[in-house]
Amino acid sequence: MGEQTIATANAEGVVIALPAHALRALELLEGAGYEAWCVGGFVRDALLGRPGDDVDLATNAAWTDVQRVFEDAGYRTHETGVKHGTLTVIVEGEALEITTYRTDGIYSDARHPEAVTFVRTIEEDLARRDFTINALAYHPTRGLLDPYGGVEDMRAGIIRAVGEPAKRFSEDALRILRACRFCAQLGFSLDPDTYAGMMANKCQLSRISAERITHELDRFLLGAFAGEALMRTVDVISAVLPELVAMKGFNQHTPYHIYDVLEHTAHAVQAAVPERLVRWAALFHDTGKPAAFFQDAEGTGHFYGHAKISVELARCSMNKLLLSPAFRDRVLVLIERHDDVIEPTPKAVKRALARLGGDTELFRALCALKRADAAAQAPQCAGRVALADELEVILDELLAADEAFTLKKLALDGRAVMAAGVAQGPDVGAVLAAALDAVIDERVPNEKDALLGFVKEWLGARADAEGESR
């Protein structure tokens, strides 16, 4: 099978430009009498015309022999995974993983083989790979080795498991999310038998570490086809994001929406800029809608308070996924504020910025979320996309004019307030907040003398109020 496939590949004129450090590694191994191939993701991405950086090699040499070959040639090595036959070598300043041909033993933890068996041929090694599009090997002179039809599946846009799908996913449950991620990155569909194997084993995802799951979800959400993939794989992904179940098929019964909650979410994710913060916020922004839903006498659906429920659902999910507290909190702010009405005026934008603690990047992310949310609504809501654009233009103008929308930008500080007669304590913060409100509302210019005058008026008003209360 191998020779015939190689001949076919050569006849097709398959040529992959390997990096210099990978070519040097092949040269050293083969100069020492061993066989080696470039394998896996680099080959796949090269055939798809996608950029690839990490190159992996497979060889019939034992890892100890690989180490000897490279160290004799003056290159450093690291015993990163020698239990499974993998040695990392540093060639021309680049890290390269080289693994001895192997087959995997029993996967008792649904993630890692307890042991591996080293084998003689590249064909045996490719048989342990997860998907046909990854079960590929390339050599500059021997051409492309494709024993499982990976190239044909690429042309058809299909993710297909190597061998028996149920066995592949029971061995390593993370492969289930990898399949979903490839759908999101490549826009491929899932082979029906492969999808059935994923569904049959999705319960095994509970045995995978939160860090691994989050890593795959990050890459899934940043995929160019994330929205389409979400709809295709939701019944699988719901094993790690159970909030999605209630959203599927949930009719919104509102003229502002033409999709159910899950479809709307998928369209919002797809429309969002491929930035991690915005995509996670888009994923969770309406998870609270099914819980908040009710219909009025005319049958129109309403979701009052859904943002707060979405915040709590997202908080719980992100905590389980071990997303960093700082990142989680920024996502939650976006979810909480995604329906805030912000008029396209400097005053309104400054007030919104003040609510965000003056975080201009978070404000831009909020605009991006609003833009994606609007793009996923009914056509009559298209104007909201332009509104989000206008809000960012106003932000740029405020920044260019160095306008004040946080206490840091206020031309007055606590010491000046106390020097003006305000007693140390909570009143200092209260008068500063009132002064900032006055500046934002353009009732007082952001100038020290004008603000000191405001403080005196504040003190006078307070004294008058205390006198009346007596």
TrEMBL record:
The keyword Metal-binding applies. It comes from the Bacteria. Residues 257-392 form the HD domain. The keyword Signal does not apply. CDD domains: HDc, NT_ClassII-CCAase. SUPFAM superfamilies: Nucleotidyltransferase (SSF81301), Poly A polymerase C-terminal region-like (SSF81891). Gene3D superfamilies: 1.10.246.80, Beta Polymerase, domain 2, cca-adding enzyme, domain 2. InterPro entries: Bact_CCA-adding_enz_type3_sf, CCA-adding_enz_C, HD/PDEase_dom, HD_domain, HDIG_dom, NT_sf, PolA_pol_head_dom, PolyA_RNA-bd. Pfam families: HD, PolyA_pol, PolyA_pol_RNAbd, tRNA_NucTran2_2. Residues 400-455 form the CCA-adding enzyme C-terminal domain. Residues 37-160 form the Poly A polymerase head domain. Its cofactor is Mg(2+). Residues 187-244 form the tRNA nucleotidyltransferase/poly(A) polymerase RNA and SrmB- binding domain. Keywords: Magnesium, Metal-binding, Nucleotide-binding, Nucleotidyltransferase, RNA-binding, Transferase, tRNA processing. Belongs to the tRNA nucleotidyltransferase/poly(A) polymerase family. This is HD domain-containing protein. It comes from Gordonibacter faecis. The lineage of its organism: Bacteria, Bacillati, Actinomycetota, Coriobacteriia, Eggerthellales.
